[in-house]
Amino acid sequence: AQSVSQHNHHVILSEAASLELGCNYSYGGTVNLFWYVQYPGQHLQLLLKYFSGDPLVKGIKGFEAEFIKSKFSFNLRKPSVQWSDTAEYFCAVKGTNAGKSTFGDGTTLTVKP
Amino acid sequence: DTGVSQDPRHKITKRGQNVTFRCDPISEHNRLYWYRQTLGQGPEFLTYFQNEAQLEKSRLLSDRFSAERPKGSFSTLEIQRTEQGDSAMYLCASSSDGTYYGYTFGSGTRLTVV
Questions:
Q1: Closest-CA residue of chain B to A42
Q2: What is the pLDDT of residue A110?
Q3: Are the CB atoms for A97 and A88 separated by under 8 Å?
Q4: Which of A8-12, A59-63, B90-94, B99-103 has the lowest mean pLDDT?
Q5: Of A80, B18, B49, B92, which residue is 20 to 30 A from A62 by alpha carbon distance?
Q6: Chain A contact probe: residue of B4, B99, B109 with most A CBs at under 10 A
Q7: A100 and B56: CB-CB below 8 Å?
Q8: What are the distances in angstroms from CA B76 to CA A40, A100, B84, B88, B102?
């Protein structure tokens, strides 16, 4: 069975600090990987995705993530966070031939101005 | 395109009652998904459709839950004989075919069973 583990439940940073949110997955096959974000009062939206090729993927708002196959990881990074990045972040995995995605339990990011 | 729409936004029901939720996906999207989310947890898969065909249903889903997608357009999720444990946010998402695409989510329906 596929699963996703997000190690940090709540991260608090000051503006301009660097961000790295951990995501490890378990799946017996090739995968597609996603990060979704939920800003306060808004619905979940796609931040970035990996499906093949370059393991370093770039998303919206300066976020990037690196797929490390040997570590089953897909960590999210941003060099300098802003107050507006305060949100909940969810990592998700999908088998390349599967229909559904499996989500982690999320990391709440609070950025202090 | 106004995105994925869900109705109602909130539903309060008494234990034992039946409830039905509706989801209107993005019109070009073949796939439609239902997830459930409780506080502190990530979205939990319930079921998904490709066009009108229900291709997968979670083993965790009891027989009280049923979903339909007639004509491959909107979808409904019905919960019969609701229990307090059914209280959650019910999320609908849609996507195009293929592994390249992520989901577009709706705003969800929050169910409270009293």
A1: B107
A2: 98
A3: no
A4: B99-103
A5: B92
A6: B99
A7: yes
A8: 27, 18, 21, 16, 21
Which tokens sit at A110? 């609070």
Question: Interior CA angle at B104 toward A71 and B87, to 5°?
Answer: 90
SS3 of residue B51 by DSSP: coil
Q: Given an 8 Å threshold on Cβ–Cβ distance, is A51 in contact with B56? A: no
A59 in contact with B, Cβ within 8 Å? no
| A106 touching B (Cβ < 8 Å) | yes
Q: Any residues with CB less than 8 A from the CB of A33 and at least 6 apart, and which?
A: A23, A25, A49, A50, A65, A67, A74, A91, A92, A93, A94
Note the pLDDT tens digit of each residue in B29-72: 999 999 999 998 999 999 999 999 999 999 877 899 999 999 88
C-alpha to C-alpha distance for A19 and A5, rounded to whole angstroms = 18
Structure-block tokens of residue A99? 């229909």
Q: In whole angstroms, how far apart are CA B31 and each of A79, B63, B100, B107?
A: 35, 22, 13, 17
Q: What is the pLDDT along chain A (113 residues), one digit of tens a residue?
A: 789 999 899 999 999 999 999 999 998 888 899 999 999 999 999 999 999 899 999 999 999 999 999 999 999 999 999 999 999 999 999 988 778 999 999 999 999 99
Measured CA to CA, the distance from residue A33 to residue A94 in angstroms comes to: 6
